[in-house]
User: What shape does this take?
Amino acid sequence: MKPVKTKDGYIKFDCRWKEARPIPAGRLKTINYWRKKLYALGMIGSDKKGIGFGNISQRIGRTDMFIITGSATGKFKKLNNKHYTRVTGYDFKKNSLNCQGPVRVSSESLSHAAVYKSNKNANCVIHIHNQKLWKKLKNRVPATSPKAAYGTPAMAREIEKLFKQTDVKDKNIFVMAGHRYGLVAFGPDAASAGKVIIMANRGLYF
Assistant: This one.
């Protein structure tokens, strides 16, 4: 089927969701801990209009599949296993994604997929919003093109490019220049990815 484009020329996000049973809570303990911590810092949550921002994911084994917070979960202070879904496949060119679980996922999941595809050592990806940190790191760490909007094939391509052309693997964090106040950190586990954000926020990193 030919991809459908939106009025602004982007390929419309196609979420192919299959409702399924929740992921066992025990598998979510660590990423849920870090999600709660970053929510408390205002880096994941929802704005005054109720629009959610930020999410966290975890690779499944050694595959390119991963578990991620579902769409519209930013407004919740605490999450449980009914708020997470498995991403089982994706296609950047078609801006499509397959997922299974209690909830759908947002188009931002493709950015997580691009990190996992590009760096086999990354087992956790955290997307946050923070104005101060975004401005501080914009010229200090790798950044995607200002022309690449979040949740688009262009953003996924930009992330893949960062891993090929910059030292982002050493920095473990990058700025989404075309996604206002958006940053992405990653690491071999949730604690490593989370600590990059905490240290950067305290001025102890970069």
Summary: The mean pLDDT is 93. Residues 112 and 125 are 6 Å apart (CA to CA). The first strand starts at residue 14 and ends at 19. The chain has one domain: 14-201.
